[in-house]
Write a structure and sequence with these properties.
With 201 residues, this protein is of the alpha+beta class. The chain has 2 domains: 104 residues; 67 residues, Roll (Pdz3 Domain), CATH 2.30.42.10. The chain is built from 5 helices and 5 strands. The radius of gyration is 41 Å and the shape is rod-shaped.
Length: 201
C-alpha cells in the first residue's frame, strides 16, 4: 500500500477512514444479497434458466445479474481494503514501537551526557559526626567530594591536602562541591573548633 499523501506516515485517522470504507463495502454487499433474496431467494449460483433452458420469467434477470456482478466486484474491493487496513495497522504499530525505542534511546543518551558532565570525585564521605561543622553545613554520608576549597581531582594527592586546606581556612567558609544522588551539590563549610575531634568532624 502506498502511504496516503505520498510518503506521509500512516495516521490513526487513515486507519479509521479505511475501516469506514470497509463498513460501506460490507453494507453494499449486504444490500446486493438482500436484493437476490428478494428475487425468489436466488443466490450467487442458482441457475437463471428453467428446465428447458429458457431464461426464468419469475425473476428480474437483469437485477440478479447486476447484483451478482456487484457482489463479486465488492468482495474484491473488500479484500483489498482489508489488506490496506492490515498494512496500515502494521505501519502504525511499527511507528509506535520506533517512537518508543527512540524516546528510550534519547532518555539514555541524556542520562549518559549528565553522567559525563559530572566532575570526577576524589574522596567519599564515610562518617559525619552529629553537631560537627561538617554536619551543620549539610554534608552527608556517601557524598562524593569533587572540590574541597582549592583541592580537586586534578591536584589531589592524599587526605593531607584536605587537612592543609582545613587548617588554613579555620573560621572561614570553604566552598565544597559534592555529587549526591547523581547531581552536583554545593555545600558551604566553615572549619572550626567544636566539642569533637578536628575542625570538621
Amino acid at each position: 500500500m502506498a502511504e496516503p499523501g505520498g510518503g506521509r506516515p500512516v495516521t490513526v485517522s487513515d486507519v479509521q477512514q479505511l475501516v469506514r470504507r470497509k463498513d460501506e463495502i460490507e453494507a453494499q454487499i449486504k444490500a446486493c444479497y438482500e436484493l437476490l433474496e428478494g428475487q425468489k431467494g436466488v443466490g450467487m449460483h442458482e441457475p437463471l434458466v428453467d428446465a428447458e433452458g429458457f431464461p426464468r420469467s419469475d425473476i428480474d434477470l437483469y437485477q440478479v445479474r447486476t447484483a451478482r456482478h456487484n457482489i463479486i466486484c465488492l468482495q474484491n474491493d473488500h479484500k483489498a481494503v482489508m489488506k490496506e487496513v492490515e498494512e496500515a495497522l502494521h505501519k502504525l504499530h511499527a511507528r509506535e514501537k520506533e517512537k518508543h525505542a527512540k524516546d528510550e534511546a534519547e532518555a539514555l543518551a541524556e542520562a549518559m551526557s549528565q553522567n559525563q558532565s559530572l566532575p570526577q570525585a576524589f574522596a567519599k564521605v564515610n562518617t559525619v559526626s552529629p553537631g560537627s561543622p561538617a554536619s551543620v553545613s549539610g554534608l552527608q554520608v556517601d557524598d562524593e567530594i569533587v572540590e574541597f576549597g582549592s583541592v580537586n581531582a586534578n591536584n589531589f594527592q592524599n587526605l593531607q591536602n584536605i587537612a592543609t586546606v582545613v587548617q588554613h581556612s579555620e573560621g572561614r567558609p570553604l566552598s565544597v562541591t559534592v555529587i549526591r544522588g547523581g547531581r552536583r551539590v554545593h555545600v558551604g563549610l566553615t572549619p572550626k573548633r567544636w566539642a569533637g575531634k578536628g575542625l570538621l568532624g
